[in-house]
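Readers outside the structure-tokenisation community will struggle with the description of the input data as it stands. For illustration, here is how one protein appears when written out as sequence plus structure tokens:
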Amino acid sequence: MSLFASLASGVSGLNAFSSALGMISDNIANLNTVGYKETRANFSTLVTETGGVASYSPGGVQALPQSLISRQGLLQSSTSATDLSIDGAGFFIVSSRGEAVNQNSEISFTRAGSFTPNADGFLKNTAGLFLMGVPLDATGEAPSDLVLTQLQPINVSNLTSTAEATTNISVRANLQSSQPLNAAIVGATYTSATVAGSMAGYAADVAAGIIPPVNGVKSDFQTNIQIFDSQGQVHTVTVAALRQSDNLWNIEIFVDPPGGVTSALAGTGQIASGQIAFNGDSTIDLANTSAALLNPINVAWTGGADASSLTFDLGTDGLSDGITQFAGASTIISSSANGATFGNVIGVSIDKNGVVSALFSNGLAKKVSQIPLSTFQNPNGLTRRQGNSYTTSDQSGSLNLKLAGIGGAGFLAPQTLEASTVDLANEFTKLITIQRAFSASTKIITTADEMLNELNSIKR
């Protein structure tokens, strides 16, 4: 009988609008939840018969949840270096276990990027899920083919300290073209191959406190540059110059203190010698400059540090961007060297490509990991899980691991958080309409009940 069907229809309305109220309640409750995605109630009819014009049997209504997971939330700035959001498509890969991915791992996906280091240095969000990343090789590159089993929890404090050996040294200076010739040049007693006749020998005597020096030749000009070995020890490299003739200067490079390096000239620290040639316009002439000054210089340190390979940048051939020979006084314009001394971890940095770098007190930044993103054919088909995360389903399709900005994946936005997609005004409006619809469904039940009472009274 259609009266009983009407009762069932009213009950289905109560159930449907109760479910819709639950969805709205969840949306409002998660108004300030980072990365939360709104759930919308879509109503669909329940039909008990499809044909016939002589009768009608009511079916009712059902509420179907529609997850708007693919909707981008507003990115809001944050002061934490480990707060992350995704500008575009993709999800962070997170795990409930602080270990590399294996057959027992519980992997899920989230847009909630409020990550902070725990007591062990692992990045976890407010739901306690570990952020997963792929380790980088020695050159700072990620594997070309990403697979899920490569992922490991990101730890920002497992590197305690580091140092970096110097490999490149740049020198900009001017050597005075009118510099009078040294007596050792005039008398042809200068030679870089002996302690007694070299600039390195003279400097070694001065360093040893032998005044006046008994060995060597005093340079016309010299400059000191600070460099580092593989253990972070600081050394001073001296570049000394002695005018030989027009457009030609003798150069010696030696280390102070001399005992810090194994040298062909024992006790002097000399690591290279040669001549720099200049063109008539006072620019450097690399073709006639000694290869020993231009090629990498192998330096064998004492004290156990690995050998270094030092390359000196003296300028571009025919240009005045390095060492020059003008009439002005000999002077150093600038010098620089890479490398760094010992330093401790003081922080972490994450760029838009998801590269995680450890920052050290000596100014170095070491790339340690990269955060991949997972994309899906239908992200709205993902299954919701506890902690504002999702897992795959038949509707979502399988996951695709990608680096940020590649293959449709978005970029990371460091020091930002993705706001909830809930519109409070819209939710309150829907709350009113759902409340009225629920009340109307109760009227269906009370009206059908009154009609059934009238039927019962016929028998009396």
Observations:
- The radius of gyration is 38 Å.
- DSSP finds five helices and 30 strands in the chain.
- Residues 127 and 387 are 5 Å apart (CA to CA).
